[in-house]
Specification:
The chain contains 13 helices and 19 strands. The strands form 4 sheets. The chain has a 6-stranded antiparallel β-sheet. A 6-stranded antiparallel β-sheet has the order 9-8-7-12-11-10, with helices on both faces. α10 runs parallel beside α11 and α11 packs antiparallel against α13. The relative contact order is 0.07.
């Protein structure tokens, strides 16, 4: 017997996701498409209203800014002409020097005239509709060019030439080229209207037409009352598609109007409500829903498969695996949580390995201490017996030489045992307020300097002036620095150098020892601070380990890096001491 529940449960995840997406998207899309068609039409009307109004206001603001720029340019030229007033008042030589510059920045009209209106210099074939102003002003002016009405944005500035007052007028033609940004939009129809006699006469001066303009009375009244722009509708039934923006002179009087309208409406938005377009949208939406369901199911199932594979890898002990954080916010959050978990497991695994290694080293140290203690007694007997034989028996030179070898090796083994015991069972030490430079660094450099000079190695100490107070044990820090200096002496070639640097910041001091030797071999670099790890043929591998244990006891750190020109740089970092002196503390 057919069971829908059993049939559905047998489907894989991807088909389930695809069918679920279709069931929740295709039925509502029929209603949603029709609602969207109606809504888009209304939204289009609102957007057109806002868009046209913004363009009209932009053009009016651009004209206002052009007045301010014209006043600024006029002031600059007038000031320059006043400074050159040593020439006769009627001379136009100084102004001619600015003519090409003014033309290059877009100014078409220049007049220099005296108080009687007599023009001393003229540029631009324009005739103003009114007499030239006799006072400083930035405004919109009207003129005629080749018998056609035009509109100017300009400014007048008063200046002193010789003993008489003069006036400089600079203007820019307000035409289609001035409003170059809106003109690039082909669907716009722009018009400039001149307002005369307080609105009783309106003249369209776009492209020199000079014909009467049709501006609704209520729009004109609102602009005269101070409104910046007014929008009106009624163009082909597509909402408010006409905007009027005010152009005002220096006295804030309405002298012009910018009219902006659509030159046509696209047929698509007129037919959004038709049934055939609605059905076409429904069919396309259904197809897109099917494709989206398939794509979404693949996108959702792929990260889930990735998470499953990641869990399998973690179960096998691979904690380094990381998942791509993709597949939507929830899946990405799940992958991020998985990555955080594996990172924590990897850290715990590394800490566990480190603790195991430390435990092994501790066990090894204890065993080495026991063995070293047991070795000391036989070594003492061997050393004493050898010395007695040398003193009481007349030995041949060759035999006496062999006895010397025995004593040398016994002494070397004793030093090795002492170093080993010093590492695994360090003495308690006291931390006092000391001057790191004067009490540790300078004595160690002076002591090692003789050995460095004997080997032909130059050395230098670079340190700031003044004390560097730290809380520490002088002897232990001195021995740690001396170990680094002797290692540098062994690494640096004859004629090489060793550099000791001290650098202090607000709460920390760094001590660096640099040499130009071959550096630490790569196979040793990762384990150089472990005991019994060394690249020297006769080394014990305890020097750097003791340096690290000393710095850890001082709550500091030691690190290594390669020198830029080749060699090694070991850095010791210690905290600067506070004002109070620390009491004695054991390791």
């Amino acid at each position: 017997m057919f069971s829908p529940t059993r049939w559905w449960s047998r489907l894989a995840l991807r088909p389930k996701l695809t069918l679920s997406f279709l069931m929740v998207s295709v039925p509502p899309v029929l209603v949603a498409s029709f609602i969207a068609a109606q809504t888009m039409s209304a939204v289009f009307e609102t957007n057109v209203q806002q868009w046209i109004g913004e363009i009209a206001r932009f053009m009016a603001n651009e004209a206002q800014e052009a007045q301010e720029e014209a006043m600024h340019a006029t002031s600059i030229v007038a000031k320059a002409l006043s400074q050159a007033s040593a020439q006769p008042a009627g001379s136009d030589t100084s102004l001619e020097a600015f003519a090409d510059l003014l033309t290059s920045v877009g100014y078409d009209f220049v007049r220099l005239y005296d108080g009687s209106g007599r023009v001393l210099y003229a540029m631009g074939d324009l005739q103003l509709a009114r007499p030239l102003p006799q006072e400083p002003v930035a405004s919109i002016f009207f003129a005629h060019s080749q018998g056609k009405p035009v509109m100017l944005v300009g400014a007048v500035q008063k200046l002193r030439l010789g003993d008489a007052d003069h006036f400089l007028f600079i203007g820019n033609l307000l035409d289609e080229q001035f409003f170059n940004a809106p003109q690039t939009i082909r669907s716009l129809d722009l018009h400039l209207v001149e307002v005369r006699h307080e609105g009783r006469k309106l003249q369209d001066i776009t492209s020199g037409q000079g014909r009467p303009a049709d501006v609704p009375p209520d729009v004109l009244s609102r602009l005269q009352e101070g409104a910046d722009s007014v929008s009106r509708g009624g163009v082909m039934g597509v909402g408010p598609a006409v905007a009027y923006a005010a152009l005002r002179d220096g006295n804030h009087h309405l002298v012009g109007i910018v009219i902006c309208r659509l030159n046509g409406a696209t047929a698509l938005f007129e037919r959004l409500g038709t049934w055939w377009l609605f059905l076409a949208l429904a069919a396309v939406a259904g197809l897109l829903s099917l494709l989206a369901g398939i794509g979404m199911s693949r996108r959702l199932s792929a990260p889930l498969r990735q998470i499953t594979q990641g869990l399998t890898s973690v179960a096998d002990g691979d904690y380094r695996i990381r998942l791509r954080e993709e597949g939507g916010r929830e899946i990405a959050d799940l992958a991020a949580g998985f990555n955080t978990m594996t990172a924590q497991l990897e850290t715990l695994h590394a800490l566990e390995a480190k603790m195991r290694h430390s435990a092994q080293l501790a066990t090894l140290g204890e065993a080495a201490a026991v063995i070293a203690h047991e070795i000391r007694n036989p070594l003492g007997i061997i050393k004493t017996s050898t010395e007695l034989v040398r003193r009481k028996t007349q030995l041949a030179p060759s035999e006496d030489r062999l006895m010397g070898f025995v004593l040398e090796e016994v002494n070397r083994i004793e030093r090795l045992v002492a170093d080993l015991l010093d590492y695994v069972r360090p003495d308690h030490f006291e931390r006092h307020r000391i001057d790191l430079l004067a009490e540790v660094v300078q004595p160690a450099v002076d002591f090692a300097g003789a050995e460095l000079s004997r080997r032909g190695i130059s050395h230098v100490l670079i340190a700031p002036e003044g004390p560097l107070p730290v809380n520490g044990d002088v002897d232990r820090l001195y021995q740690a620095l001396l170990n680094l200096l002797l290692n540098a002496a062994d690494a640096a070639p004859e004629g090489g150098h060793v550099i000791v640097r001290l650098k202090a910041c607000s709460d920390e001091v760094t001590l660096e020892v640099e040499d130009n030797g071959p550096g630490v071999p790569p196979d040793v670099e990762g384990r150089m601070f472990e005991p019994f790890v060394t690249s020297k043929a006769n080394g014990t591998g305890l020097g750097l380990a003791k340096v690290q244990s000393t710095l850890q006891a001082h709550e500091g750190a030691v690190s290594y890096r390669k020198a830029p020109g080749g060699g090694a740089i070991f850095s010791l970092r210690l905290a600067l001491a506070e004002d109070r002196t620390l009491v004695a503390a054991s390791q």
